[in-house]
Amino acid sequence: MNWLDKITWTAEGLVPVIAQEAGTNDVLMFAWMNREALALTAERGEAVYWSRSRNRLWHKGEESGHVQQVHEIRIDCDQDVVLLKVTQRGHEPGIACHTGRHSCFYERLLPGEDGQPAWQPVEPVLKDPHTIYAKP
User: Fold this and answer.
1) Would the annotation count 114 as a binding residue?
2) 65 near 134, Cβ under 8 Å?
3) CA pair distance 131, 6, nearest whole angstrom
4) Nearest 5°: phi and psi at 135?
5) N or C terminus: fewer CB in 10 A for the chain?
6) pTM for the structure as a whole
7) Which CATH architecture has domain 3-98?
């Protein structure tokens, strides 16, 4: 049995993936992988995801330079979620989100001005995303 066969893949051939920062255990992002992405991640030691919007493999950092070095690959008890323990590397270490933040989970549900719950950013932008993705 191939190690990839233990994963419970969706009907689309994908598995959800959580990237967690090694050391701090901050949850950095959520993405998807197909078999090829997971195999490449294990082989390269860098995160490779499946981009559903682009319909292709996406080597994290290919445009931004914010590469994820993978230290561990784990699966949950149901074998239907993958956890990557990573270190963010690149031009600006510590930026995982395309918004220029440390984590994609930067909004928190808090009371709004009208007293109703509202999503509010609670993490700072570390670098303007327009400068991260600017084409020379």
Assistant:
1) no
2) no
3) 41
4) -85, 130
5) C
6) 0.90
7) Roll (3.10)
Burial bucket for residue 50 (CB in 10 Å: 0-12, 13-18, 19+): buried
Average pLDDT, the chain: 95
Residue-wise pLDDT tens digits, 94-114: 899 999 999 999 999 999 999
Q: Any idea what DSSP says for residue 125? A: -
Using a 10 angstrom Cβ sphere, with 0-12 exposed, 13-18 middle and 19 or more buried, the burial of residue 127 is middle
Would you state the torsion angle of the CA atoms of residues 32, 51, 94, 62, taken in this order, to the nearest 10 degrees?
140
The answer to whether 104 is a known ligand-binding residue is yes
pLDDT, tens digit, 9 for 90 and up, residues 13-54? 999 999 999 999 999 999 999 999 999 999 999 999 999 999
The residue ranges of every structural domain in the chain are 3-98
Q: What residues pair up with 84 in beta bridges, in sequence order?
A: 19, 73
